Amino acid sequence: MSWPNWLPIREQLRELSPYGAPQIDVPVRLNTNENPYQLSQSLQEGLANRLNKVLADLNRYPDRDAVELRGQLGESVQRETGVQLDQRWIWAANGSNEIIQSIALAFDGDGLGFVPSYSMQPLILQGVGKRWHSRNRGANFEVEIDGAIDAISSTGARLVFLTTPNNPTGNSTPIDQIQRLAQACLASGALLIVDEAYAEFSDEPSAITLISKHPNILVTRTMSKAYAFAGARLGYLVADPRVIEAMFLVRLPYHLSSLTQAAALAALSLHDELSRDVARLRQSRDELADQMRALGLLVWPSQANFLLFSGFARDAKELWEFLVSQGVLVRDVGIPGHLRVTIGTSSENQRFLASLAAALKG
Ligand SMILES: *Cc1c(COP(=O)(O)O)cnc(C)c1O
After folding, report:
1. Nearest-atom index, ligand 1, CA of 235
2. Does the N terminus or the C terminus of the chain have fewer Cβ atoms within 10 A?
3. Cα of 151 to ligand 1 centre, how many Å?
4. Which of 290, 327, 319 is nearest to 307 (CA)?
């Protein structure tokens, strides 16, 4: 990007590119890891009722501290993980990206991440003026723990990011390794931010179970993926109450609108229905992986709602373009020879497979 001279753009931002997953209007969109199932009629009605009730009060500011919502999020986390907590352990914001930004605003030090991983973590940290360090993952995209521990002390980074299950590779970091990373972070005064955007699709226990012993672990979650709620924008943080208190210092007043709070409360009350879709997606993921392997592709094992694959003879960009021409949008994540596909509905998955088979023959 070239910026005009009259614009005092910060030096650090000059060379960066904005986040830009293509939003192309094609029939089969499998590129941003959304839940493909639309909200059911009953959920839509529940939502409309809830929103109706807040409409009369839109002249007033929302609950600044989102106490009811944070309480309900806490109960939902407690049901899932068995960890006792209440709203003092929860922060909520407009997507987990805002959570990451608030963490970056509140706490000192550089960022460190293990790549390939979620590209917004470095972009958000640089956006608030921080330096970013990265270390490569191993041959199977695993975090090499000894090397990671060295990097934590040698970089002096104090905001260490671990995405698990990792995006875009799909693999998880085992809980005992997360514990070792947290210990290394504690020794160098760092926080370990565990991004669990895909936790609901995984068999690994959540890092939330470690927080009471390791208060330097911060777990970020989102309703955008498993909860089929990407359009509503709701992310949350589970952490020690002293971490949450720091979030109050950097949040914008009334950042979470009454509409968002009401919509999220309605969605949480229909949790059981949504978790059925998660089970369905996990099963489709494993079936689709087998079907892709039967086409001769290399498909990385995944604990998330997407698959990273390679083993096609052509250039990734060329295959991506061919699939778009067939009405199927997947993601070129910038790993040479690889593409990432989000698990869709059965018919979307079949359409993706058919286009893929055509590409591999052609
Ligand atoms: C999708 C995603 C998020 C962000 O989601 P929000 O919609 O902002 O809640 C965060 N982290 C990872 C790893 C993701 O893939």
Report:
1. 9
2. C
3. 25
4. 290
pLDDT of residue 21: 78
Q: How far is the CA of 361 from the centre of ligand 1 (A)?
A: 35
Question: pLDDT digit string (tens) for 90-137?
Answer: 999 999 999 999 999 999 999 999 999 999 999 999 999 999 999 999
What is the token pair recorded at 29?
A: 């969109």
Give the type of residue at 57.
Answer: D
Q: Write the burial class of residue 37 (CB in 10 Å: 0-12 exposed, 13-18 middle, 19+ buried).
A: middle
**CA 174/CA 165 separation, integer angstroms:** 10
3-class DSSP state of 246: helix
DSSP assignment of 115-167: ES--THHHHHHHHTT--EEEEE--TTS---HHHHHHHHHHH--SEEEEESS-T
pLDDT tens digit sequence for 261-274: 999 999 998 877 77
Determine if residue 353 is left, alpha or beta; phi over 0 gives left, psi from -120 to 50 gives alpha, anything else beta.
Answer: alpha
Residue (of 95, 122, 146, 134) closest to 256 by Cα position = 95
**Probe residue for ligand 1, chosen from 96, 167, 234 as the CB with the greatest number of ligand atoms within 8 Å:** 96
Residue type, 30: L
pLDDT at 1: 63
At residue 113, the 3 state secondary structure works out as strand
